[in-house]
Amino acid sequence: MQIVRFRADGKTRYGALDGSAVIEYSGTPWSVFRRGRRRYALKQVVLLAPTSPSKIVAVGLNYRDHALEMNMPIPEEPRIFLKPISAVIGPDDPIVLPPQSTRVEHEAELAVVLKKHCRNVPAERVRDYILGYTCLNDVTARDIQARDRGPTRAKAFDTFCPLGPCIATDIEPNAVTVEAFVNGAVRQSGSTKDLIFAVEDLVARVAEIMTLLPGDVIATGTPAGVGPLSPGDRVEIRIDGVGALKNPVVKL
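User: That's the sequence. What structure does it adopt?
Assistant: Structure tokens below.
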């Protein structure tokens, strides 16, 4: 199933993709979730970020090739940080380049969406706590990150966390291709087979530190090839089985 959150007729709803249509569901994916009778053509709806998380946990340097391109050592344990929920935008929403930065870059990532309350769960049971997976663009002001020697300010600007277009419930997360395109040209292409810390391990390690709630997001890291964005660009994150998350780039 590919679960979506969308706006139609002035209301926000949940549903599932069915080809070029959306089938409306009652309830939410974290409660009672029942298929309804109403169908909308995709052109009739506005797709939103598919979840409204209480927090976004991101993981740095989880691909060896990205660690190498950043001239950083391979981590011995996950390097985690938080992105604010105010950074979340959905498909086709603009990424806004802030005046404080002269180099903003894309980072294509597979993101995990939690299904239920998760705390101190062993890796072998983690799949029971995952609703599905989506595309995430961990937009980063790279010059600010270099000056701060840390990720928080560089990754926290409004619009710096595009999510979508859906939550795919039936993919194999440790064997998908993760790609980024800018204006149709490929910038990043990697596979989650190359993750240093696999999805289940990441979730278990994060859940040792903090309680994960339904709808929370864990971004699993980005492959090599991160690069700059400019006003007028259109950036696209593609993941097998999830689809394409597309966002224009604008400047204040």
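The longest helix spans residues 199-207.
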